[in-house]
Write a structure and sequence with these properties.
The two termini are 17 Å apart. Mean pLDDT is 92; it is low at 5-12. The radius of gyration is 17 Å and the shape is globular. 73% of the residues lie in helices and 0% in strands. It has helices spanning 18-28, 32-43, 47-64, 68-81, 85-104, 111-124, 132-146, 150-167, 170-186, 190-207, 213-223, 228-242, 250-255. It is mainly α and 260 residues long. The longest helix is centred in the middle third of the chain and has 20 residues, at 85-104.
Length: 260
């Protein structure tokens, strides 16, 4: 199962903004450095751009288990230019995600920092703030993977899913579908798991989120019988190789025996 936490929102949410579209296209193909470079000239003075740049580099850490120093630098820069509670809350949410990522990938145990930062984000973000659904999702990740509390995780994922759907954040919906499906599979409900994994995959394909498609295929394979599971894993392996072996943690999942 994936432990991934996504950054901000889909960069291509404004098709009339060429820079957002370009950033999304690079990000969706795993070119995080190039995407961050497009934002760098504007990040020094604009809190939103600074946070989006930091989020890209944190996502690179999640997919590659590398680039920690660059992500930390970008995050500190975003924290420095944040001036409102929502901006500070967004930066705290991203710091929590970086600490969570370092912990689950075994780079360094920063679980206490992850919890503290996400708690700080919850205190700063207005309940109706755009970043609230993402915060709920990340608190679900911490509950599931650091606290081993699936009930708390499910409640947080459901709040995140409702918030993402209300705001039209399709990529976050893909993540919430996937993690709710993972909990269903953990409980032995294969039908519910297949539905959630299939919805997650469908959204990623429709959005063109190529770098996240192989993990979605592999997750669905875990809930499918043969021979469909083998077909899905083969397609996931093809994309995994095409993208140069990212996400790095997917290799172990692809090597596992197919689900019965």
């Amino acid at each position: 199962m994936s432990h991934s936490g996504k950054p901000e929102s889909v960069e291509a949410d404004d098709p009339h903004d060429p820079r957002r579209v370009a950033v999304w296209r690079l990000r969706s193909r795993g070119c995080w450095d190039d995407a961050a470079a497009l934002l760098a000239p504007y990040a020094a003075d604009d809190p939103d751009t600074a946070l989006r740049r930091a989020a890209l580099l944190v996502e690179r850490c999640m997919f590659t288990a590398a680039g920690w120093a660059e992500a930390e630098d970008a995050l500190r820069a975003a924290e420095a230019v944040a001036s409102s509670d929502d901006e500070r809350g967004g930066a705290a949410c991203e710091r929590g995600n970086l600490a969570y990522t370092a912990t689950v990938l075994g780079a360094r145990d920063r679980s206490d920092e992850a919890r503290a930062a996400l708690g700080r984000a919850a205190a700063l973000l207005d309940p109706a703030a755009p970043g609230r659904a993402l915060l709920d999702f990340r608190r679900g990740l911490v509950a599931e993977h650091l606290a081993d509390s699936p009930q708390a995780a499910r409640a947080a994922y459901r709040r995140a899913h409702a918030g993402a759907a209300a705001r039209g954040d399709l990529l976050l919906c893909s993540f919430t579908w996937r993690h709710l499906a993972g909990l269903a599979l953990r409980d032995g409900d294969r039908a519910e798991a297949r539905h959630g994994f299939a919805e997650s995959l469908r959204i990623r394909v429709e959005l063109g989120y190529l770098v996240g498609t192989a993990p979605a295929l592999a997750a669905l394979a875990d809930a499918e019988p043969e021979p469909e599971a083998a077909r899905l894993r083969a397609e996931a392996s093809r994309l995994f190789r095409l993208l140069g072996g990212v996400p790095t943690w997917l290799a172990a999942q692809l090597d596992r025996a197919p689900a019965a």
